[in-house]
Amino acid sequence: MRRRQVDPPLVLPRREVMDGIAEDCQTFVDLLHSVDAAGWHTPSRCAGWEVRDVAGHVAGLFADVAVGRMEGHGLPEVTARQAAERRDRTPEQVARELRKAGRLCLAVLDGFPDDAWLARAPGGFPGPLRRAVLVLWYELYVHGDDIRAALGRAPERGPGLRASVVHVAETLGLWGWGPATLRLDGIDELPVRGGGQPVTGDPLAFLRAATGRLDPVPLGLDDRVNIYREVAA
Q1: Which of 6, 195, 211, 224 qualifies as a FRET site for 33, CA 20 to 30 Å off?
Q2: Contacts 24+ apart (CB under 8 A), 119-126
Q3: What value, to the nearest 5°, has the Cα angle with vertex 110 and ends 108 and 111?
Q4: CB 138 within 8 A of CB 167
């Protein structure tokens, strides 16, 4: 494994992240309310998951965080449990749970002092609190994009896309990808492992490639850019 990145390419302000989560949580809730019975059972690009499973995972993630159930987030068995627990619920039921859990999450996170933002996150998360919270915003955006793609709807852009690219850029640096400089359209320049070969183009296409949702080859990249690929310790 190559040397991992020590300094993140960009640290988003706490208030920006919190406000972004609140806004995209409501956007996700509204999206669920727009899904009909047929759409709820539509296969998604997440292997083996229908739209209802994607939604259930997101609601389960926020419900877990809201009550301090922090262990194992991101592990396949945990995401599978979150989805399975809600598989027989309606879009409206999952939307209601997410709305409530999102508000509780934000209230809990608001209770942390400012000096905790850069300190180690609770619950065994391998990094600082500010990174763990950014993951929540990323999950809302990328899984909202999964649902829209499954339903044949146009993608949404905006602050959630930028935040997700920032998260992915830091993750790639931690995994030893690069060095490279992300110069994506409309996004801050993000140096990965000190900067290097520029990567340009559409930020959404890059995000999808970097999360295993799009073939990276047409973008001039290879599968090492996928943050979900297996990496050596």
Answers
A1: 211
A2: 122/68, 122/70, 123/68, 123/70, 123/71, 123/73, 124/70, 124/71, 124/72, 125/70, 125/73
A3: 65
A4: yes
- pLDDT category at 229 given cuts 50, 70, 90 is confident
Q: 153 Cβ partners below 8 Å, 6+ apart?
A: none
Say if CB 152 and CB 33 are below 8 A apart.
no
Peptide bond into 198 cis (omega under 30): no
Cβ neighbour number for residue 150 with a 10 Å cutoff = 19
C-alpha of 189 from chain center:
20
pLDDT in tens, 10-31: 999 999 999 999 999 999 999 9
Q: Give the tokens for residue 37.
A: 């019975």
Cα–Cα distance measured from residue 231 to residue 101, given in angstroms and rounded to the nearest whole number = 33
Helix ranges, the chain (H): 14-33, 37-40, 51-66, 76-84, 91-110, 129-150, 159-174, 203-210
